[in-house]
TrEMBL record:
<dbReference type="InterPro" id="IPR046994">
    <property type="entry name" value="STAT5_CC"/>
</dbReference>
<feature type="domain" description="SH2">
    <location>
        <begin position="589"/>
        <end position="690"/>
    </location>
</feature>
<dbReference type="InterPro" id="IPR000980">
    <property type="entry name" value="SH2"/>
</dbReference>
<dbReference type="InterPro" id="IPR013801">
    <property type="entry name" value="STAT_TF_DNA-bd"/>
</dbReference>
<keyword id="KW-0727">SH2 domain</keyword>
<dbReference type="InterPro" id="IPR013799">
    <property type="entry name" value="STAT_TF_prot_interaction"/>
</dbReference>
<comment type="similarity">
    <text>Belongs to the transcription factor STAT family.</text>
</comment>
<dbReference type="InterPro" id="IPR036860">
    <property type="entry name" value="SH2_dom_sf"/>
</dbReference>
<dbReference type="InterPro" id="IPR012345">
    <property type="entry name" value="STAT_TF_DNA-bd_N"/>
</dbReference>
<dbReference type="Pfam" id="PF02864">
    <property type="entry name" value="STAT_bind"/>
</dbReference>
<dbReference type="GO" id="GO:0003677">
    <property type="term" value="F:DNA binding"/>
</dbReference>
<dbReference type="InterPro" id="IPR001217">
    <property type="entry name" value="STAT"/>
</dbReference>
<dbReference type="GO" id="GO:0003700">
    <property type="term" value="F:DNA-binding transcription factor activity"/>
</dbReference>
<dbReference type="GO" id="GO:0007166">
    <property type="term" value="P:cell surface receptor signaling pathway"/>
</dbReference>
<dbReference type="Pfam" id="PF00017">
    <property type="entry name" value="SH2"/>
</dbReference>
<keyword id="KW-0010">Activator</keyword>
<dbReference type="Pfam" id="PF01017">
    <property type="entry name" value="STAT_alpha"/>
</dbReference>
Length: 714
């Protein structure tokens, strides 16, 4: 079913969210009348960060305008006449708005379609009996939205009270002026003859007494109104703090954790649209309350009445300033992290975003963001508010960027597209630490004001840890440092402390996540695979998974100490397997054709019970990034006996010459893939087609693999 048809069935807050997507930048009528066309275009293929894609966006803009004009032309009748004019106007409006920036139109429509799909998906999940998503997440969203509604009502209530207070105070001042006028009249009586004074004085004294009694009562009433209003504001600020804590300390921290795990191959962290909408609601409510508190303070200054209200208002003003400061500084975030393994003299990108920038009109005076690379020690000092004297640990080119406001999506962000680390200054290393274990971070900082320079904020945010390398050969070990940090970092840690040892099941989860992402496969590591890895990591022979659940692995075991009898670490071996599979074996791994994580003895035990010619594929124990073929056949030296043979491992270099499938095809003595699948059934779809006939009298040579001993053992 078309998304637009389902979107029209949304209700309540979801409907309100959907409607808020539209406006002058993109009228809802255009979405309605061109729904089929809009949903049929390939908006996602356009890279919004690539200016060269602008011509594609321009073509889509022109097509959109043409579609609108065609729709307008086909309108007939009285109602059709009005619609014809309306659609024609929208065509001109969209052309005028986006003709010079067609990529913004694509950004706008992608945002609209993505949000509608999400709202429809959430609504269908909540209404379906299986809707598991309706439990925790949807309930939390519901609680947040309910709290916002409560805040809206409280803010409206205090606004009404403030107006009432202002009205009463204005009337009080009028009456106070009246009392002064009466007093002036009484004073002027001294110039009159005694008879006249005695005639008029009693009336004026009575009037003065009445007015003064009223002023005394009303002053107490005004003071009570002020105290009641301050108490209501205290309640609002308590709820605001609580709501802000949920959004910033729970939801935003969870998003950052998902972003960190995505660096290890975890699922994407998800968009920031919902978080931004919440933060914008917070900003709006905080600002409304701040303005109310300031108006209350102005009323107090206009008419001072002795009492505790001055101190209360000072406390409220201080609290609301703290709340808005926390909101602004916490919502300056890195939307797209720089690469965590960073090679010098290589271009890299990052995107920084201020979630409340649009709502607080920060874009009216666009702030500049600066990027600096700093060491772990400098990051610690920064978080302790120690003076780092603007120290850096290297030089980044193109490290300044102005934040841009995208009206269609309401986002304020700085896109660093062409940064490059020119040089790095390393610190003294500790003990056995290598350069690929040293962590840096990119510090992004900016300064801007809100409310017409009422408040000035200096904001800073740190990237995820970065390991700097100068040569591709260091990538493997640097990736190990990043993997360990992303997987095991605790929220709110001191930069960049991680545990030195972790439980084996925790490491298995991280390795599986990384493996699936690198190989781009839904087939992860099975329990048998993980037992094999545990045997390798702990030099154990146990095949019982439970034996490893309580065991811990240290960082040294992971990537400092070589495996027994080898010149490489556990991680280096595992990374080699991932690289080989990613580059050359992905389809075979996905097909289940590669057992892979099997040692030599296990392979022998498995094959000896199978017919001759049965083979399996396993990763080499002795070589990084190698895979070998093991098969069972006759022993040429002992007639009647059988044995398992192992080919010398293949590596990336071998597969760049001839593929695994072709090599298996070349070896006629390989008949069945373990346990009993004919090899052609598994691999034939990957064989290179036979060469064509000779061209111009030349025959193209062909490379084939031969195993000399094979003739003896088939």
């Amino acid at each position: 079913m078309a998304v637009w048809i389902q979107a029209q069935q949304l209700q309540g807050d979801a409907l309100h969210q959907m409607q808020s997507l539209y406006g002058q930048h993109f009228p809802i009528e255009v979405r309605h009348y061109l729904s089929q066309w809009l949903e049929g275009q390939l908006w996602d293929v356009i890279d919004l960060e690539n200016p060269q894609e602008e011509f594609k966006a321009k073509r889509l803009l022109d097509s959109l305008i043409q579609e609108l004009q065609n729709k307008a032309e086909h309108q007939v009748g009285e109602d059709g006449f009005l619609l014809k004019i309306k659609l024609g106007h929208y065509a001109s409006q969209l052309k005028s708005t986006y003709d010079r920036c067609p990529l913004e139109l694509v950004r706008c429509i992608k945002h609209i379609l993505y949000t509608e799909q999400r709202l429809v998906r959430e609504a269908s999940n909540s209404s379906s009996p299986v809707g598991g998503m309706m439990d925790s997440m949807s309930q939390k969203y519901q609680q947040i939205n309910q709290a916002f509604e409560e805040l809206r009502l409280l803010t409206q209530d205090t606004e009404n009270d403030l107006r009432k207070l202002q009205h009463n105070q204005e009337y009080f001042i009028i009456q106070y002026q009246e009392s002064l006028r009466i007093q002036a009249q009484l004073t002027s009586l001294t110039t009159l003859p005694p008879a006249d004074r005695q005639l008029r004085e009693p009336t004026l004294l009575s009037k003065r007494a009445t007015v003064e009694a009223w002023l005394t009562r009303e002053a107490n009433t005004l003071q009570k109104y002020r105290l009641d209003l301050a108490e209501k504001h205290q309640k609002s600020l308590q709820l605001l703090r609580k709501q802000q804590t949920i959004i910033l300390d729970d939801e935003l921290i969870h998003w950052k954790r998902r972003q960190q795990l995505a660096g290890n191959g975890g699922p994407p962290e998800g968009g920031l649209d919902i978080l931004q909408s919440w933060c914008e609601k917070l900003a709006e409510t905080i600002w409304q309350n701040r303005q109310q508190i300031r108006r209350a303070e102005h009323l107090r200054q206009q008419l001072p009445i002795p009492g505790p209200i001055e101190e209360l208002l000072n406390d409220l003003n201080s609290t609301i300033t703290d709340i808005i400061s926390a909101l602004v500084t916490s919502t300056f975030i890195i939307e797209k992290q720089p690469p965590q393994v960073l090679k010098t003299q290589t271009k890299f990108a990052a995107t920084v975003r201020l979630l409340v920038g649009g709502k607080l009109n920060v874009h009216m005076n666009p702030p500049q963001v600066k990027a600096t690379i700093i060491s772990e020690q400098q990051a610690k000092a920064l978080l302790k508010n120690e003076n780092t004297r603007n120290d850096s640990s290297g030089e980044i080119l193109n490290n300044n960027c102005v934040m841009e406001y995208h009206q269609a999506t309401g986002t304020l962000s700085a896109n660093f597209r062409n940064m490059s680390l020119k040089r790095i200054k390393r610190s003294d290393r500790r003990g056995a630490e290598s350069v690929t274990e040293e962590k840096f971070t990119i510090l992004f900082e900016s300064q801007f004001s809100v409310g017409g320079n009422e408040l000035v904020f200096q904001v800073k945010t740190l990237s995820l840890p970065v390991v700097v390398i100068v040569h591709g050969s260091q990538d493997n070990n640097a990736t190990a440092t990043v993997l360990w940090d992303n997987a095991f970092a605790e929220p709110g840690r001191v930069p960049f402390i991680v545990p030195d040892k972790v439980l084996w099941p925790q490491l298995c989860e991280a390795l599986n996540m990384k493996y699936k992402a690198e190989v781009q496969s839904n087939r992860g590591l099975s329990e048998e695979n993980l037992v094999f890895l545990a045997q390798k990591a702990f030099s154990s022979s146990s095949i019982n998974p439970d034996d490893y659940r309580g065991m811990t692995m240290t960082w040294s075991q992971f990537n400092r100490e070589s495996l027994p009898g080898r010149n490489f670490t556990f991680w280096q071996w595992f990374d080699g397997v991932m690289e080989l599979t990613k580059k050359h074996l992905k389809p075979h791994w996905n097909d289940g054709a590669i057992l892979g994580f099997v040692n030599k003895q296990q392979a022998q035990d498995m094959l000896m019970s199978k017919p001759n010619g049965t083979f399996l594929l396993r990763f080499s124990d002795s070589e990084i990034g190698g895979i070998t073929i093991a098969w069972v056949a006759e022993n040429p030296n002992k007639p009647g006996e059988r044995m398992v043979w192992n080919l010398m491992p293949y590596t990336t270099k071998d597969f760049s010459i001839r593929s695994l499938a072709d090599r298996i095809s070349d070896l006629n003595h390989l008949l069945f893939l373990y346990p009993d699948r004919p090899k052609d059934e598994v691999f034939s779809k990957y064989y290179t087609p036979p060469l064509s006939k000779a061209v111009d009298g030349y025959v193209k040579p062909q490379i084939k693999q031969v195993v000399p001993e094979a003739d003896l053992i088939t």
